[in-house]
């Protein structure tokens, strides 16, 4: 059901002129502003109406349901504002409704639909199309957000931090997604993002077979979600050096101003070559090889060979941590430990190879129950547990049991936060920092995994509550997804949305969310929106607020997982069967560990005759050789 049309029809039929106004009894309602699934949990948070009755009326004005407002309860992140959680799940007929307390309408129109989350799920995925680098976004697919091609990245230079001391040669690093509100492309953040989207597809294949995102590839025979992911995978493949290692990022030396992509003409570099980028690459390419094999065997084979080569480099260079070079000011994504990425990479590579040597590497670090933390770009233990727990026929029982304990331990910790919680939101004060909305989305993702493993409804209901929070059931009455909801984010920290001529921001972007530890106060003209006593209110809808209102691919991905995952389960009536999980088989050679390659400070160059031509032979810091013609162009 179209949200805008539903509201228009509702207003015409019922003639509610004060729908969003507070009632005479001074009650305030906070609710999901885009809709509720017909067969799903339905709750709103009501402030100031304890003991009263909420009546839900349909579009004709007829009473559909009445619910007594329960006792109010606090939710620490909301500060001193206690709320009552009103459950109206009995309202299971599709339609548009309005809540009343006495004779006064409270809150916004309530839309109940079989496809309540479909639009926001598609928008969250379409966001990645809007983030495409190296291509024009045409009106056919981007509408009023059409823009010229920016950052072709067909002649990317090597920064000296890559170990390649060469001011002449370039490589083709085209495609990929812009990382966040800036125009950089980062392997580490692409890792967790791409994994999340690939797993979303793997767990809901039937749902995505026909889901149309209206992207240039929509007319082919490949699910649109996989076409979009491939745009990023093909860029990631360009970031592999000839020795197998992976360049850490592709950016300019410093961030550009608030300009459109095509206006940024600064030189772009491959910067650094790191062990964390390499292990991320291995994990993603292994999973991609499995998923894309039915659609493109050659591409799948390319992915697995790239993963194999990168894994070999990783075993030789376990201490190649990324250090931000002097003179570079773009995102770091640096990490002091690569242990979590290493076992994740080994798990994914074992899953498709069944190679016992690689399995032994994965098992070097047990999946302890104590590591029940949400996944982030810098902490990927839980991604390993997601993979292992949903593939019980591939991994050893002891490993599967450990992974299940980890996933369900996290799920239970999240559900426990709902006790005496007036807003019904499974978050606490520790969740409110940089990217707090991604914590909500990642918690929802963890709960869906817990539901898949157990089929226990408590996990699914808690996930619905987190989606409700992101879509408006919060103390700011804010829908944090651009383009959706009555009171939606309008001024995100996102360069294209700031620099284009369109008033509304690009749709489908999840704002970072409340951050009481924000450090952007000076950038925002000393507007101090922080509130340590009410962290869920520490938000500023202004482009200046990169600490609370930026967007990022690794934040949108778990939101896409949450919204689409819930919709898929509802629409198909199916839940992924872990006992039937399988993976394509690829031959991957056992890789014996050799000595680590020590960094060198110099490189050698010499003129040679090769294949009848005079070439320049250059040796980089890792001992690998490259060949160039006399004009400095690399010869593959």
Core attributes:
single chain, 636 residues, alpha+beta, five-stranded mixed sheet, 17 helices, 34% helix, globular, disordered N terminus
Count of beta strands: 17
Please state roughly what percent of the residues sit in beta strands, choosing from under 5%, 5-15%, 15-25%, 25-35%, 35-45% or over 45%.
5-15%
Termini Cα gap: 53 Å
Order of the strands making up the biggest sheet = 2-8-7-4-5
Extract low-pLDDT stretches: 1-24, 592-603
Annotation field: number of helices: 17
Dominant shape: globular
Helical residue percent band: 25-40%
* Structure classification: alpha+beta
Sheet with the most strands, sense and barrel status? 5 strands, mixed
Mean pLDDT value: 92
Radius of gyration: 25 Å
